[in-house]
Design brief:
Protein name: ABC transporter permease
Order of helices and strands: HHEHEEHEHEHEEEHEHEHHHHH
Distance between the termini: 29 Å
Membrane topology: Multi-pass membrane protein
Family: Belongs to the ABC-4 integral membrane protein family.
Shape: elongated
Subcellular location: Cell membrane
Organism: Sphingomonas hylomeconis
Structural class: alpha+beta
Number of strands: 10
Length: about 400
């Protein structure tokens, strides 16, 4: 009986192909939207976590101001001094290394090719604080750091644009108005999940950058590596107390600097992307409800159109249960058809959008199974009322219907 009922339902759907597709359109759009939003949200979250993990674990970033910018409308807070770096390194327990940074922008030139990039002045401690291995060459020598020699380590983006992907170590290029010997190249990190190309960078001794580009010994950023055996929260609190003392911040005065834990940054960004994904997914899921209502409306029309057919079936011996099952199977089949088409369209959309968003393609089987299952449930829920109405028709009244 079930096989015959299923066959009758499929024949009815195929008899009105265009109407069937239009009926399932709401389910198609809903499934495609939900799967696409959830998958892209997870891909974005994974990209953010990957970018943060590339900075390394147990790292504290210290900047002047009350946030990543100046904060507030008052005067710019003072930058850090080299003595602050030494104080943190020597006086705070659990600190493995402190890497001061001074940044500037300049144009790098090599044999007619030029590229605008970021110059990051730091010390050898930079490579102790965060894991960024070199693909070739070496790091700074202590004498080069002390003398502020014009030597540099360059990222992959700079290598590709200036040296066309060829060997860069041992070559001399110009950065702004100075010549710089390339002593190393960095491994590829890729795009940051929160924007920016991490490989578009030139790293030089901090004294060279301060002398040639910034014109001061001020430090705008410190990266602090924390020993795994110590709590980053405890080390962060100790550094805060030390800097408040050194910067003469007393009583209830707010700090004119901020300390960020990379894990906190990761958790914040991950939480934000997850929340936005949930909101957008909830909005997209509404179209599934709309699609279910569309199926119910068309099935009600179908019951009206086929009233005489239903009367004949009931008159020659079909029971109400068989009629109900036939219309219910039609509704579920329409809904599941919409679910399958929606899943296919979702994968096409995801594959196209990950390239534009520059995130990795992630296939999430759970959301695909759940979305397809929900489409089937919607067919049952919204198809039951029309099916019940068809099964409840009086055979005599149905045969009289024109």
């Amino acid at each position: 009986m079930l096989g015959t009922t299923f066959l009758l339902a499929i024949r009815s759907i195929l008899r009105h192909k265009l109407r069937s597709i239009l009926t399932a359109l709401g389910i198609i759009i809903g499934v495609a939207a939900v799967v696409t939003m959830v998958t892209l949200g997870q891909a974005t979250t994974a990209a953010v976590q990957k970018s943060i993990s590339a900075l390394g674990t147990n790292i504290l970033q210290i900047r002047p101001g009350q946030g990543f910018g100046r904060g507030g409308g008052g005067p710019r807070p003072p930058d850090f001094e080299p003595a602050d770096v030494e104080a943190i390194r020597r006086q705070i327990a659990g600190v493995t290394a402190v890497a001061p940074q001074a940044q500037a922008s300049a144009t790098a030139i090599y044999e007619g090719a030029n590229w605008s990039t970021t110059i990051n002045g730091t010390t050898g401690a930079y490579f102790q604080v965060q894991p960024w291995p070199l693909t070739s060459g070496r790091s700074f020598l202590p004498l080069e750091e002390q003398a502020g020699k014009s030597v540099c380590i360059i990222g992959n983006t700079v290598v590709q644009n200036l040296f066309r992907g060829g060997e860069a170590v041992g070559k001399r290029m110009r950065i702004g108005a100075i010549s710089c010997d390339v002593i190393g190249t960095l491994s590829t990190r890729g795009q940051a999940g929160f924007g920016g190309d991490q490989d578009d960078i030139v790293i030089m001794p901090i004294k060279a950058v301060q002398r040639r580009f910034t014109g001061s010994r001020d430090i705008r950023l410190m990266l602090v590596g924390v020993d795994q055996a110590y709590s980053t929260a405890v080390v962060q609190s100790s550094i805060e107390d030390l800097l408040r003392e050194r910067r003469n911040i007393t009583g209830s005065k707010e700090n004119d600097f901020n300390i960020f834990d990379t894990k906190q940054i990761s958790d914040t960004l991950t939480g934000t992307t997850t929340l936005l994904t949930s909101i957008v997914t909830a909005v997209a899921a509404i179209s599934l409800i709309v699609g279910g209502i569309g199926i119910m409306n068309i099935m009600l029309v179908s019951v009206t159109e086929r009233t005489r057919e239903i009367g004949i079936r009931l008159a020659i011996g079909a029971v109400a249960r068989e009629v109900l099952l036939q219309f219910l199977v039609e509704a579920v089949a329409l809904s599941m058809l919409g679910g399958v088409i929606g899943l296919v369209l979702a994968q096409i959309a995801i594959f196209s959008l990950v390239g534009l968003m520059k995130v990795d393609f992630i296939f999430v089987p759970q959301i695909n199974v759940i979305a397809f299952g929900i489409s089937a449930v919607i067919g049952v829920v919204f198809g039951y009322f029309p099916a019940r109405r068809a099964a409840g028709l009086n055979p005599i009244d149905a045969l009289r219907h024109e």
